[in-house]
Write a structure and sequence with these properties.
alpha+beta; 4-stranded parallel sheet; 14 helices; 19 strands; binds zinc ion
């Protein structure tokens, strides 16, 4: 992997992804294996004027050992200082922004008690709600980006020796993140402008529902939340700073109405949940709620996901991604949602983004619920788009419009 590309990638993540502003503190979470990328991001952040950069390191195998051997009650505990340590920065005068670097083995927790892992995760998310709302509501800029680790690379390229697999995954990440050729900042400006134009078209139609169908059996009607607003790649934080939460990103998305989803949907890519893979799955909805589900692999884990809390068996996001997206065209299955969700249309179990409802960022939980905006401590994207997916939209005036045909944007 070329150092020059890695530097370009790090600088792009800091300047375009999280868009660090002068005087801000950048809070980074990063696995030990991704230290080379984190170090470069720290440098770029200071060059962009960051007041301070704090890196929280973690180690996947340590996390596995704790989940395997630790007491569930102890693992579920969150000491108050931990949340304060984030809030203190976010509430400070210069404010904070957040970067999550991923380098995860998609099956890091394979074989462990899926129920225990999920309960621990849900309990921790509930206790960190105030802090999590900062990013869910885009109060502060945040960004997720990834770097290969050997276990992940071998899962993606099992036929290659480890070093070649890592190299191949690097090349794939650079390519789909538009870092390989020329100036990524300029390429992303063009890319974001194209996604924004599609977002504006979707908003102009004022759809009240969408219908997804595909030869795999998918036949799903998704009513949209009251005042649903389509969003794309870039978001604004409370201070008006533009940032790109996911690198890469190809989606245009909005909020379904939590009680108006009906039909059956088939997953089109394996889904890594809590570092275990759910494969060949389908889900049936009635009045927004999952009434039946099944999976070829890890069906019980899918059940745990859906039982996480009241909102986990409703959906909070529907996103459109064409089959021709660079990630899908690469033909690579990343076994990582950050990439795979940008290769196919997807829906998300759990929380909706308040920004996908007109005026939603200023609403409280009750008001959001009244608009049909789903609430949950989880937000899990599952891929449902296929090469033959058709999506039609029903407008408020009762007109039917083809939005996707043959897996592609129809306009
Ligand atoms: Zn999405
Ligand atoms: Zn999502």
């Amino acid at each position: 992997m070329k150092t020059e590309l890695l530097e370009k990638y790090a600088d792009f993540i800091v300047r375009v992804g999280v868009n660090v502003q002068p005087g801000q503190t950048l809070l980074v979470s990063c696995p030990l294996e991704a230290a080379p990328l984190a170090r470069l991001c720290v440098r770029s952040a200071y060059a962009a004027g960051a007041r301070d950069v704090r890196v929280d390191w973690y180690d996947g195998l340590t996390a596995r050992a704790r989940l395997e051997l630790g007491d569930e009650a102890a693992l579920s505990e969150v000491k108050p200082y931990l949340e304060r340590s984030y809030l203190d920065y976010a509430e400070s005068e210069g404010g904070a922004c957040v970067l999550h670097i991923l380098a995860d083995d998609p099956e890091l927790y394979a074989g462990l008690d899926a129920g225990k892992i999920n309960r621990v995760r849900v309990a921790r998310n509930q206790k960190l709600k105030t802090w999590r709302d900062y990013t869910l509501n885009d109060k502060i800029a945040w960004c997720i980006a990834a770097m290969p680790c050997p276990a992940w690379a071998k899962k993606v390229f099992p036929e290659l020796p480890e070093a070649s697999a890592v190299e191949a995954l690097w090349n794939a990440i650079f390519e789909v993140c538009r870092v390989t050729h020329g100036d990524p900042v300029a390429e992303w400006e063009t890319h974001i402008a194209r996604l924004n134009a599609l977002r504006d078209k979707m908003n102009a139609y004022h759809f009240s529902s969408l219908h997804f169908s595909s030869a795999n059996g998918t036949d799903l009607n998704i009513g949209l939340a009251d005042g649903a607003h389509w969003e794309s790649a870039a978001s604004f934080d409370d201070r008006g700073t533009l940032f790109v939460p996911n690198i890469p990103t190809e989606e245009v998305f909005t909020a379904p109405h939590k009680d108006h989803v009906d039909g059956v949907v088939y997953g089109t890519k394996p889904y890594a949940y809590n570092s275990q893979l759910i494969e060949d799955f389908h889900v049936t909805f009635q009045n927004g709620r999952v009434t039946e589900y099944g999976a070829g692999k890890n069906e019980a884990l899918l059940g745990e996901l859906l039982a996480s809390d009241e909102g986990a068996c409703h959906i909070g996001e529907v996103a459109l991604v064409p089959a021709s997206s660079p990630i899908n065209r690469s033909g690579i299955l990343f076994y990582d949602t950050l990439f795979d969700e940008n290769a196919a249309c997807h829906i998300a179990f759990g929380a909706s983004y308040p920004g996908t409802c007109k005026g939603g960022k200023a609403m409280n939980e009750e008001e959001l619920k009244k608009h049909g905006m789903n609430q949950s401590v989880i937000h899990e994207d599952i891929m449902i788009g296929a090469a033959d997916t058709t999506v039609t939209g029903l407008t408020e005036k009762g007109e039917t419009v083809t939005v996707f045909s043959g897996g592609e944007w129809a306009f």
